[in-house]
Specification:
single chain; 381 residues; alpha+beta; Helix Hairpins; HSP40/DNAj peptide-binding domain; 10 helices
């Protein structure tokens, strides 16, 4: 089964009663430890860093924290993009905590970004990643599907084609930071690098900003994104659409779109890994005499042989008819539990026949009944 989303307080290693200062202090320590620049090629560290950013984003905003304390992760699944339009980019949060507002944070920001404040020399900045929660059926999870989703996000401004400048205008080197995106402030014996207040870390200013986007190079639009769902996917799995996130500042590269899958409850099957579980009714005559019944599968239905004397609750395994493995040709099984069905209405002939049958049956024909009462004798003897 897929790993469940962890509790945000557990992620940040704080108590539920922790103050904002305690949360920030813990985030600072953990974010530095798991930052991708300190753990190159370590995907687990990168996931941990993003998890920290998501948890910090929620617990440091009173309204989000209150909603989370009351409803948990479900508070941010409505609408697919989380509260207030989705989670912030974890790298933006890191720069905000360590870069803005002084302190020693600017040192870390300078270390990880190479002094550029997260922007390229041209002032372009990478766009934020986005999250979308998608519901699919069990059949779509089993056989794969192609879905199209509609999201509101920041895309390149149509007026300036993403440059942020009016036609004929150009970007100029920021006179305050001289294109570095940061300024150095002296604090006693220390020199601390901070995000440039003039250009917001881009290193450039627009001579004549675009009137449509006010120099940002992007505007909110409705976009359609096609998502290919692979066969065998499970709930809480994430699909990554590279470049499907928000367009970067002033023509910068787009962030990524992460689609989190949620499989709807099925009316017949319950999934457990690659296996499927179901319950089917079994006529009591077939249970006693043996025979065949039809059992549903995701591909249709198959015949299942029932041996004579089958008891209620017996489980039969149908091999190779369950869920496929992700990126694999193997398939799980269907585990069918039978429920012996007893008739509720009998006519005179039927009742007479059953009474005759009961009279002819001895103890040897009811092994479970005999075993139970033998244990009762031992209990009261």
């Amino acid at each position: 089964m897929s790993r469940q989303k962890r509790d945000y307080y557990e992620v940040l290693e704080v108590e539920r009663t922790a103050t904002e200062e305690v949360i920030k202090r813990s985030y600072r320590k953990l974010a530095v430890k798991y930052h991708p620049d300190k753990n190159p090629g370590d995907h687990a560290a990168e996931d941990r860093f993003k998890e920290l950013g998501e948890a910090y984003d929620v617990l440091m905003e009173p309204q989000k924290r209150a909603a989370y304390d009351r409803y948990g992760h479900a508070a941010f699944q409505q609408g697919g993009m989380g509260a207030s339009g989705g989670f912030h980019d974890p790298f933006d949060l890191f720069r905000e905590v360590f870069g803005a507002g002084g302190g020693s944070g600017g040192i870390f920001d300078h270390f990880f970004s190479g002094g550029g404040g997260g922007a390229e020399g041209s002032g372009r900045q990478r766009g934020s990643d986005l999250r979308y929660d998608m519901q699919i059926t069990l059949e779509e999870a089993a056989f794969g599907a192609e879905k199209e989703i509609e999201i509101r996000k920041l895309d390149a401004c149509a007026t300036c084609a993403g440059s942020g400048a009016q036609k004929g205008s150009k970007a100029l080197t920021c006179p305050t930071c001289r294109g570095r995106g940061q300024v150095v402030a002296s604090r006693g014996f220390f020199q601390v690098a901070q995000t440039c207040p003039k250009c917001s870390g881009s290193g450039q200013i627009i001579e004549k900003p675009c009137s449509s986007c006010q120099g940002e190079g992007r505007e909110e639009k409705t976009s359609r994104v096609k998502i290919k769902v692979p066969a065998g996917i499970d709930s809480d799995s994430r699909l990554r659409s590279t470049g499907g996130g928000e367009t970067g500042l002033r023509g910068g590269p787009a962030g990524d779109l992460y689609v989190v899958m949620h499989i709807k409850e099925h009316h017949v099957f319950v999934r457990e890994g690659m296996d499927l579980h179901c319950e089917v009714p079994l006529p009591f005559t077939t249970a006693a005499l043996g025979g065949e019944i039809r059992v549903p599968t995701l591909d249709g239905s198959v015949d299942l042989k029932i041996p004579a004397g089958t008891q209620g609750g017996a489980v039969f395994r149908i091999r190779g008819q369950g869920m496929p493995g992700l990126h694999s040709s193997a398939r799980g099984d269907i585990l069918t539990r039978v429920q012996v069905e007893v008739p509720t209405r009998l006519d005179g002939d039927q009742r007479a026949a059953l009474e005759k049958f009961a009279e002819l049956c001895g103890a040897d024909n009811s092994p479970i009944h005999k075993s139970f009462y033998d244990r009762l004798k031992d209990l009261f003897s």
